[in-house]
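About this split. The held-out portion is used to measure sequence recovery: a designer receives only the structure tokens and must propose an amino acid at every position. Recovery is the fraction of positions where the proposal matches the reference. Here is one held-out target exactly as it appears in the evaluation file.
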């Protein structure tokens, strides 16, 4: 099914495609875009579709209103006991893994509250750009639970275990500048420039060979879970795949001929 067809079926997510970039906007502003089942299901469907659609080469995720995503839906989780809580975590983890493993670059443009599952959603993206209004945090222990949409695993891997433990144990909210300081975000911009900045960065990325970007993403993501020797083995294998592409022939020929490369993503 095409992105257009899928997008008409979504409840809490809006999707547009321009310049080969899908802009995925979480659109449940009354609840600060909290992730209920409908929203998670929308994300699942749209990321399946984006994975299959060759006309989309990069993705930007953002939120409508003053929230990016203010977490998992607390109202929905209120009645959950152990088994339901585990199932909910499993569902979100499966979808966030899909985002993390998509062989296309994904940028989160964090416009506002990115708390709990919202911070975790941004962590499943390759790059985070924050507006000056963005606020990050993992407040789960204040609700009697732990981050379980990937936060206990991805946050320490990104910013180190000391700061991650401080944020997870205290539940403290962190504004954009501090998020930049601890390496949680790549860049901070004024709110009105957020989407433009994310698009510009994505356009810079997409000037390069898409298959090579996908292979680099696999090597980085999987390599982070391996010891260095196995990671370097994987790097050689992904390099071998990149050397097999038409884009490698074009990229190197264009360099020698002193002209810009025209990649076909083949
Ligand atoms: N779930 C459900 N509803 C939420 C929500 C959430 N995570 N966050 C906000 N909302 C709702 C509020 O209940 C409120 O709805 P009503 O208007 O119907 O009362 C609406 O969104 C607006 O929120 P506030 O009135 O609270 O707005 P505010 O500006 O005063 O405060 C806020 C903003 C600090 C983000 C506050 O809403 C808040 O603390 N939200 C909860 C954040 C949180 O704890 N997230 C973690 C959830 S657990 C999780 O994500 C876990 C995980 O790994 C399982």
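Reference sequence for scoring:
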């Amino acid at each position: 099914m095409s992105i257009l067809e899928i997008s008409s079926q979504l409840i809490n997510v809006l999707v547009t495609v321009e310049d080969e970039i899908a802009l995925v906007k979480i659109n449940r502003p009354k609840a600060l875009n909290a992730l209920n089942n409908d929203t998670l299901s929308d994300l699942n469907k749209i990321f399946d579709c984006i994975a299959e659609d060759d006309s989309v080469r990069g993705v930007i995720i953002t939120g409508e209103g003053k929230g990016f995503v203010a977490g998992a839906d607390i109202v929905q989780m209120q009645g959950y006991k152990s088994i339901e809580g585990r199932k909910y975590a499993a569902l979100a983890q499966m979808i966030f893994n899909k985002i993390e493993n998509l062989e296309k670059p994904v940028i989160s443009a964090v416009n506002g509250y990115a708390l709990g599952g919202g911070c975790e959603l941004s962590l499943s993206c390759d790059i985070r750009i924050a507006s000056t209004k963005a606020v990050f945090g993992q407040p789960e222990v204040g609700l009697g639970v732990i981050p379980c949409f990937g936060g206990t695993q991805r946050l320490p891997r990104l910013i180190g275990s000391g700061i991650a433990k401080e944020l997870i144990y205290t539940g403290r909210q962190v504004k954009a500048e501090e998020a930049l300081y601890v390496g949680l975000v790549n860049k901070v911009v004024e709110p009105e420039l957020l989407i433009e900045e994310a698009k510009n960065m994505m356009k810079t990325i997409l000037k390069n060979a898409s298959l090579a970007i996908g292979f680099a993403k696999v090597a980085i993501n999987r390599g982070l879970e391996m010891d260095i020797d196995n990671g370097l083995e994987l790097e050689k294998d992904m390099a071998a795949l990149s050397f097999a592409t038409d884009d490698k022939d074009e990229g190197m020929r264009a360099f020698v001929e002193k002209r810009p490369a025209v990649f076909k993503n083949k």
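Annotator remark: Residues 31-32, 34, 70-75, 113, 115-117, 120, 139-140, 143, 147-149, 151 surround acetoacetyl-coenzyme A (CB under 6 Å).
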